[in-house]
Specification:
By secondary structure, the protein is mostly helical. The protein has 15 helices and no strands. It has helices at 9-23, 29-45, 48-61, 65-72, 77-84, 92-106, 117-131, 152-166, 180-193, 196-207, 214-232, 241-261, 271-288, 292-306, 313-333. Helix 8 packs parallel to helix 10. The longest helix is centred in the last third of the chain and has 21 residues, at 241-261. It is globular, with a radius of gyration of 23 Å. The termini are far apart.
Length: 338
């Protein structure tokens, strides 16, 4: 598999699946999660080996045990629903899951008030997929002014709603306005924080958004290659199955990024882009730590070298307005009594 991974991710995943089947432990939470996510990854990787493994994974997840699980609690179908969308050759059990999910969703029974908003959107995506309908929701509405303060959970929700829009990077999506500068800011932040999972998810988002710039994509390819080098270690080997069970997610995301880029994958570390990323990463540390003066001084240096960052300017305006309001409050507090 030409995915830049020092070893065959599909073979290691297949070995882990063999161990899970031998243990009869598919329903253990950690194994259930692995099999479900491996189904998505293999569908997106899409070569012959991946599709063969996808079939085996589907057989393991949608097995005879499914009957007793759903008899105990029909709402458990929600746990199987996303994977059912990515089983390339669905069985009769898989189709029954899709049908039951659609009935529950139409009855309003798949939503939950305690879910993050994007999890309920996930339910809408699965239902649309089951019907053969299109799905689109713009997760970037209203984030421009608060971009530097987004939490990791906020960013994770953005990436996943984009995945639903784009069939996990398979389709190129157009959004109102230009969201690419925002994605670039978040990529620089994830890179600075060393958050490989979020970084790779954001790289998929950028690569599957209309208007992506070739120079940025080549630099992003270099970031993905560097992330893989970290994940696989200095010898370039994937972890054995017992360790792979705990570390598969970023490797699968990296493989999906490679599938998204396809033959265009061509890593190139542009020194100017790398320096710009490093400066943005440091700026976002300052602003998240509310070190306003350091942020403003750093941003002035950044503008002098690279020009204004369209992804940061709206947030800067908001920050300055808040500072002005705070200064006015302080002035009023110390105004002489009349």
């Amino acid at each position: 598999m030409e995915d830049g991974v020092g070893g065959d991710i599909l073979q290691v995943a297949a070995n882990l699946l063999d161990a899970i089947i031998a243990e009869n432990s598919v329903l253990k939470p950690e194994n259930f999660k692995f099999v479900s996510e491996a189904i998505i990854a293999t569908a997106r990787i899409g070569n012959d080996d991946a599709l063969a493994l996808n079939t085996r994974l589907g057989e393991a997840l949608f097995s005879d045990s499914l009957r007793s699980v759903l008899l105990r609690n029909p709402r458990s179908v929600v746990m199987y629903a996303m994977a059912s969308c990515f089983v390339v050759t669905p069985s009769s059990r898989t189709m029954a899951v899709i049908d039951l999910f659609a009935r529950l969703h139409d009855a309003g029974a798949t939503r939950a008030l305690h879910h993050p908003a994007y999890r309920n959107l996930e339910m809408d995506y699965i239902a649309a997929n089951a019907r053969g309908d299109g799905f689109f929701h713009d997760p970037f509405v209203g984030i421009a002014e608060s971009l530097p303060w987004l939490t990791r959970d906020h960013i994770y929700s953005l990436t996943h709603v984009h995945f639903y829009n784009s069939y996990f990077g398979a389709r190129c999506i157009s959004y109102p306005g230009n969201i690419l500068p925002w994605l670039e800011i978040l990529i620089a932040r994830a890179r600075h924080d060393g958050d490989l999972d979020v970084l790779l998810e954001l790289l998929i988002c950028y690569a599957s958004t209309s208007g992506a710039q070739p120079a940025q994509l080549a630099f992003h390819d270099s970031l993905a290659a560097a992330a893989l080098a970290i994940l696989c270690g200095p010898d370039g080997q994937l972890p054995p199955p017992d360790m792979f069970r705990d570390h598969y997610h970023p490797l699968f995301v990296a493989a999906i990024y490679r599938a998204t880029r396809g033959a265009d994958f061509a890593p190139h570390r542009d020194v100017a882009i790398a320096r710009r990323h490093e400066m943005i990463g440091r700026l976002l540390v300052d602003i998240r730590q509310t070190d306003l003066m350091a942020y403003l001084a750093g941003y002035a240096d950044h503008v002098a070298e690279f020009g204004p960052e369209p992804g940061l300017e709206p947030a800067l305006a908001l920050q300055l307005a808040l500072v002005a309001a705070a200064a006015e409050d302080r002035t009023q507090a110390f105004a002489p009594a009349r």
